Amino acid sequence: MQNNKPVCTENILHITSGEMTANALRELLPQEEILPFNEAMCEGEVHIEIFKDEFYRLRAAAYGVELEDYLQKSPGSFMQNRLKDYPVLYLYFDYDMFCTVNIITLLAFLEQSGYSGRIKFHLLEADGSVAILDTWPVLLGIYEKCYCRVLLKRQRFITGNELFDKGIELYLEYKKRNNRIIRYIKAHSMEEQKHLVRDLVLKFADYGLTDIAAARFITACRDEKR
């Protein structure tokens, strides 16, 4: 594990997987610009034009919130208006499916927006901290195609990055009508919901399954039986 914190000598935009990681990074780099990505792209439907009107509408619908509420937390406005101010991007995401799908969306947007700066990926421990496990440079060129193939068409795509490719396979399984999570819920239908939620979060940690997503799956399965 690399325990050293990032050294900042350029105008860098630090993009994290969410608020928890952003807050942890702010303690280390209080003077830096840190943007939480604040998306859950594995949920709901998507649009080919990222961070545009129809994309925003579909994301708000995916979360079941009003568009105005979604836009308050979305990174879209910042990405659209200020990305050009940063010649270097540092990305901080962990290794589960949830993060992989968000990363693909982010990189696809960078391609759509013609971003030409340098990008460095920081792989984090999956505990909300900024404990860096590995780092590598990211080269753009395949991610808009990957986004369209995987998120819009639900088809396989090989990026050549082992971490991303594993996340893609998990996502395609996750979006199936009778996925592994649903099958597990059906096989343990007599368990109390709070215990089942806990079991799902632990058993399917590689998906990055949250309490809310687990409860949603349980509710959907039980509604289907009525």
From TrEMBL:
Keywords: Membrane, Transmembrane, Transmembrane helix. The keyword Membrane applies. The chain crosses the membrane at residues 89-110. The keyword Membrane applies. This is AraC family transcriptional regulator. It comes from Phascolarctobacterium faecium.
